[in-house]
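REQUEST ID: PR-0412
SUBMITTED BY: lab tech R.K.
PRIORITY: routine
TASK: structure prediction, single protein chain
INPUT:
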Amino acid sequence: MALSKNFLWGGATAANQCEGGYNLGGRGLANVDVIPTGVDRKAVSSGKMKMFDFDDNHFYPAKESIDMYHHYIEDIQLLSEMGLKCFRMSISWSRIFPNGDDEIPNEEGLQFYEDIFKELKKNKMEPLVTLTHFDVPMNLVKKYGSWRNRKMISFYTKYVETVLNRYKDYVNYWLTFNEINMLLHSPFVGAGICFEDGENEEQVKYQAAHHQLVASALATKIAHEINPDFKIGCMLAGGNNYPYSCRPEDYYKAIEKDREGYFFIDVQARGYYPNYAKKKLSKMKIIMLSEDEEILKQNTVDFISFSYYSSRVVSTDPNVSEETTGNVYGSIKNPYLKSSEWGWQIDPLGLRNSLNMLCDRYQKPLFIVENGLGAKDEPNENGYVEDDYRIEYIREHIKAFKDAVEVDGVELLGYTTWGIIDLIAASTGEMSKRYGFVYVDLDDEGNGTRKRTKKKSFEWYKKVIASNGEILE
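STATUS: complete
OUTPUT:
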């Protein structure tokens, strides 16, 4: 089984990492706007440090980012030149409902995205739209405590109903929440959660998780009522955990760590909490309403999407302590793998492993919606970036997912590389951690012309797409 002729080759972005225009077009403030770079970033992202507005002592990269707000026509034309079949993007919730609990939506925000979708349609690109990509209106954080509060479900479903009705003629593929399991590791990023003194943090996180899972099911219901042909997906921050050794304790710990992510997808794809999750939630006294069980059961997703950058390693041996970084949270260092400049371990076979494990577990179509290499790109004297390291990374991962499809029989809808154009890195807020095939002249302090320049990988990926993955050299 080869890749389908309709395979969705593409690239991915997120509004908060590329759009900018934080105070333009009637947009309200969002949680991701007020996360600074520097030493306080982790404390704010983890919900340990309250930062509900801007101050003069920090730099906030999401305020302007690469300013796709003003450059989207130019950017879409570049992506069209590359031959993209699919463009993954997100809608900023606070651009549609500036306060989150507004009575009526912001027409200027609605029109902005409609213009983008029209431009994508003109360039024959299929939009894959994330409804919430680490994005919560700050008013909902301040007024209601964000997703710890059940009222968030109705604010979210109103937003969902508004945008799905408005864009039903332009968008077929939707994701409810980006990397939904990230709220366990970065609660303010993933769910706008900031902890109060003395709170049971685990209980707060899992209560918020339940609210998001009910909201996701209701979004799926709304979507299928608006258009039964809509394809609705969930989204996992993926990458399996390897046991450091064959000690049974290490193997069991790997199962436990994998379940932290599967917990969410088990519910979204199967429609119920598995027994291990029920045990965990009952101990925490998570509040659920009587109708929640039926809502989850009746409204499962059509496909499962996930990000994959690297695998992780766990150990129960206190003497095994050498750690490396990863997608927000770290891992024991794998001695068999190379690492990126930021310490992320490079494991193409891990992508094939993840595809097979997700396929076996859920028997639903899969979609790789983030995969890429963050690196410091240095333009030469002509402003050209020869990013052979990026080409090698993506080539090996394409080979791995082709093996999963052609040899293992995995049903894969598409592949969108992360940061198709350079944007702000979610984990660090840095611009210097670049992922794109298009270089953007901007540094970590927000200085630069924001000029777009094609890298070597641009022409390479163009050939890959044109050959449906047959030409990889």
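NOTES: The chain has 15 helices and 16 strands.
REVIEWED BY: pending
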